[in-house]
Structure formats: structure tokens, C-alpha cells
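Issue: ligand-bound run for NDP - logging full I/O for the record.

Environment: standard queue, default settings, no custom constraints.

Inputs:
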Amino acid sequence: MAGATGAQLEAIPIPDHYRGAYLRKEDVGIFEGIASSAKDPRKSLHLGDVPTPELAPDEVMVAVMASSINFNTVWSSIFEPVSTFGFLEKLGRSGSLWDQRHNQPYHVIGSDGSGVIIRVGASVRNWKVGDKVTIHCNYVDDQDPSAHDDSMMATNQRIWGFETNFGGLADLTVVKANQLMPKPAHLSWEEAAVNALCNSTSYRMLVSKNGAAMKQGDVVLIWGATGGIGGYAVQYVLNGGGIPVGVVSSKEKADLLRDMGCEAVIDRSEMGYKFWKDETTQDESEWRRFGKDIRSLVGEDPDIVFEHPGRSTMGASVYVAKKGGLIMTCAATSGYMIEYDNRHLWMKLKTIKSSHFANYREAFEANRLISKGMIQPVISKTYPLEEVGAACYSVHRNEHEGKIGVLTLSPSENLGIDNLEMRERIGENKIGRFRR
Ligand code: NDP
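Outputs:
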């Protein structure tokens, strides 16, 4: 597949079904009454054949060589905070026949992928059969005027494989042509597959004018600094001349962070912060202790806080940001009903700004930095598609570092590398830093 010419690929008939990791509508209630942490994706994620969808004129069909686990895969598989079937029903109701395809009793999930284009729709101009691509997850109807300033603002903006069907954790996918980016030639399929969602998110949050537009010398506090988005955030701060302060939860992760070049490291497990005294009361003295620890490392308060844990940390994040500082948030892993002390926000003229994935341009620029070897993939482990439930479970349990890759059509790891010379120039120790 990967070495075939366009003509050879065109000659291969498309099967009427394909293998994918999917959720079933009939399973939506299976975790009712169970605590979030005990909900097990291995029970809800199924692997099997689903019908191949028809290709819309603005879409391409991709033979997926590898994909990855994102946190939205976890949310989807435990049906939290809502079941994704509601998204599919809404998309199905939105009118066009192409949209109606998505509303099925099964949901093939997955919001990342690398692979080879095997069919192009009639109106696709910039891509052809045989092109090797990575796929970003911003699913936008470009005939909608609201998509033409910043497409993340489009009224019908959706995340592929989460709010749409036919996601990347499968042997085939159909995606819009405006989701495609060239596959970085020096990376294997799985190394190329793990980046788009998290890397583009961190790029928008820190580099883009739609986010923090970080400048040289900025101190940036990064929660989960060896996690999916955190692992890229650290690299953006270092590349941009900023000063990262990385927070992690183990000695191993602290060592990894130092190895990445982040000198200011806080192991939150070792420090034992208790920002919440109980379910409803926060402890300002713990925020202060955390702030002092940051100052003791870098001598000043953070200009920017890269925030995503949400309820557990937001009070502390608002408190420790510098006067006039920015709290850049894109998520709420530990809970979305947020509490912080507003006096610390307004009296110190701080700003909370939100971000969500990235527009095509931002995703393309972030992909370009990977292709140039200026940002490294943060892949730590790869699972075969048969073990997608276990892969998802490990992310849900926070047992992983960086990103988890999933092999779909690629029969083993380390395949698909086209530019060995560039790889040698960058160094395996850098590209494989998270695979320890
Ligand atoms: P990961 O699980 O890979 O990393 C998150 C890290 O955050 C964890 O490894 C952990 O690191 C840290 N963390 C988790 N809970 C807490 C807590 N209660 N207090 C402090 N730190 C915590 O996930 P991702 O990086 O892929 O995603 C992070 C969040 O961002 C998710 O909620 C995800 O859904 C969201 N997201 C949003 C996007 C968007 O476009 N809006 C895009 C991508 C992700 P450690 O234990 O080492 O401290």
C-alpha cells in the first residue's frame, strides 16, 4: 500500500466494509452509576467491520497506517460528559445527504491519523491518490461564511472522529480535503500519526495570535508537561525563547522533562499540594506555597499558564499567574465546574482565555515544524488496533507519557520512513525521547 503508485492504488477496488474501532449506541448506558475512573474503555470499544461510506466530492479516502489515542477517545469511550451519539444525530439532522451518513448506530472514533490517499472526491484539487498524509481533526464546512476568519469560530465546526463518524482508529477513513497535511518524511507511520491533534492545539494555545502569542523570555507554567499537549507545549516554549516551568507527577516524568531541556521542574506528587481542602473548599495557602515554589525555580511569576486539568488546578493557576498574566485554557480533565478567586483575577488584571484545537493554517504550520524537525513527536508506546481498548485504558488511568500510537494498516513499528538522512541529522535520541 505505502509503496504503490497512484495508478496501482486506483486499480485496487474499495471494499464495501472495513475494520474499525467503534462504540455502539446500544451501549451508551453501560457505565451508569460507576465512578468515572472505574469506567473501562475495554468494555465499550469494539473492533470489527463497518460499512464503507460513500465519498463526498470534497473528501478523500485514506488507507490509515497508524492513529493515536487522544483524551477525546477516552471521553468518547466512557460516554462522558455526554455520549458522542448525540453529536452524530445532530450532524445527521443538519440537512445534506453527506451529513446524514454520519448518523449510525455505531461510531468509529479516533481524531488522528497518518496514511495514504486511495481515492479523491471530484472537487479535490490539491491532493492525489498515492499522497502520504497526516490528518488534522478540524472538520469544517468551508461554504459557511463563519468559517472564513478563523475556522475554529465556524458555527458548524466539529472534531473529526469525535463529533463526526468514520474516525482514524480504523483501516480506512473519509476526511475532508481541508484536513490533509503532508506526512513528515523522516517519521514512521506511528510517529507521524500522533502529532496533529495535540501539537496543533499547543501551537494555537502558545504561538498563535489566537492564543497566547508567547514572546521571548515569557515564563510559562505547563501542567501535565510530559502529557499529550504538555509535551508539545514544552517544546514550543523552548523553541520560542521562553522559560518553561513544567509540572508532572513522578520522578520518571521529571527526569524526562529535564532531558527535554526544561530546567524548572515541579513534581506535584512529591510536593503533595492540596489545593482543595475538601470537595467544596480551596486552600489559598496551598496556592501560595505552589507560587513560592515557582518563584524559587525561576525567580518570578508565570506570564502564561498552560491550563487544562480544570477544577483541580484552576484556582491555583489564576493565583500564581503574574500581574497582567494570561491563563490559557483548553480543557478540564478533572472537572469542568471551575472555581477561582475572582479578586486575584481582576485586582491583578489577569486574563483567562480559551482555546480549542486549531484552524487549518495553525495545524499546517504546526505540522511544518514537525516536518522540519523543529518539533519532535512525543510518542512513548504503540499498540496494535486489536488492543485499542487497552491503549485507551492506559491514557484514562494516566499511566502513559506523551502520546500513545496505534498501528492500523502498518504491520509493525518503524515503517514508512522516507528520509533517513534527515532522521540521522536530528538524532534518534531526540525523535525517540519518550520511548524509554
Ligand atoms: P494527557 O492525559 O496525555 O496529559 C494530561 C496530563 O495532565 C496528565 O498526564 C497529568 O500529568 C496532568 N493532569 C491530569 N489531571 C491532573 C490534575 N488533576 N492535576 C494536575 N495535573 C493533572 O492528556 P492530553 O495532554 O492529551 O490532554 C489534556 C486535556 O486537554 C484533556 O482533558 C483533553 O481532553 C484536553 N484537550 C483539549 C483539546 C482542545 O482542543 N480543546 C485538544 C487536546 C486535548 P501529571 O500526572 O504528570 O501531572
